[in-house]
Amino acid sequence: MKTIRVASYNIRKAIGTDRRRMPERVLEVLNEVDADIIALQEADRRFGVRSAAIPPLLMDNQSGYRPVPLNVQVDSMGWHGNALLVRKEAEVARHDVLHLPYLEPRGATMAEVAVNGVTLRVFGMHLDLSGLWRRRQAAAVIHAAAQGAEMATVLMGDLNEWSAGRGCLADFARHYSFAPCGRSFHARRPVARLDRIMHCGKLTLKDCGVHESAAARKASDHLPIWADFAVG
């Protein structure tokens, strides 16, 4: 069976816990996690042209990753801050953006990726602060993921859900299994499992966790989470 590592990371626009914007630290953390596919949240600046929080040249020079080309905004890396990174050698067969119902602008991303001999469909998301809108957004993602459910599928991102198993977590749990990665927020003292990785039955979870390096505790207010899956 072949294995693949995925990760999810809210990079807070590359602003660290010291309130300094240092995208180099984010790249250091991504290189430490060493995932094949990464879902980023808050990957773009909030105002102006919403340029990428990690300059493209810096990512190219200091990491083995490239963003999935969403072709939405010229200077942005993502869609409403959601971006998908893949290894440079990976092949992206298809990609899309999802328009989610919202109180404040939200979206999700999708890509079909082939890397290390494994083909995986990945959804990345950052859901609303409001529980009502989170559930509506979760329903939209679940509906989109149902189209093409024959593919091995992973959904991940910052769900903003503080409850242990209610709200949107219960909605997702009817269709997908959760990787028990652990607490990822706040980076200095993790108390909540806001970031989640979910998977379909075609994948076997081998290992998962929260990446708690010294660099990760400084680079963002969230810690990255990761999961290893066996396919086939």
Q: What is the total tally of β strands?
A: 12
Helix amount: 10-25%
For the terminal residues, how far apart are their CA atoms? 5 Å
**In one word, what is the shape?**
globular
Strand order of the largest sheet: 3-4-2-1-12-11
The topology string of helices and strands comes to EHEHEEEEEHEHEEEHE
Which structural class fits the helix and strand makeup? Answer: alpha+beta
The biggest sheet, with number of strands, parallel, antiparallel or mixed sense and barrel status, is:
6 strands, mixed
The helix tally amounts to: 5
Stretches where pLDDT is under 50 for at least 5 consecutive residues are none
GO molecular function: endonuclease activity
Pfam family, one: Exo_endo_phos
Domain Endonuclease/exonuclease/phosphatase: 7-222
Protein name: Endonuclease/exonuclease/phosphatase family protein
Task: Report on this structure.
The chain is of the alpha+beta class and 232 residues long. Helix content is 19%, strand content 33%. It has five helices and twelve strands. The chain has helices spanning 23-33, 56-62, 131-146, 168-173, 216-219, and strands at 2-10, 37-41, 65-67, 83-87, 91-99, 107-115, 118-126, 153-158, 177-178, 195-199, 203-210, 225-231. The strands form two sheets. It has a six-stranded mixed beta sheet with strand order 3-4-2-1-12-11. The longest helix is centred in the middle third of the chain and has 16 residues, at 131-146. The termini are close together. The relative contact order is 0.20. The model has no long low-confidence stretch (mean pLDDT 94). Keywords: Endonuclease, Hydrolase, Nuclease. It comes from Sphingobium rhizovicinum.
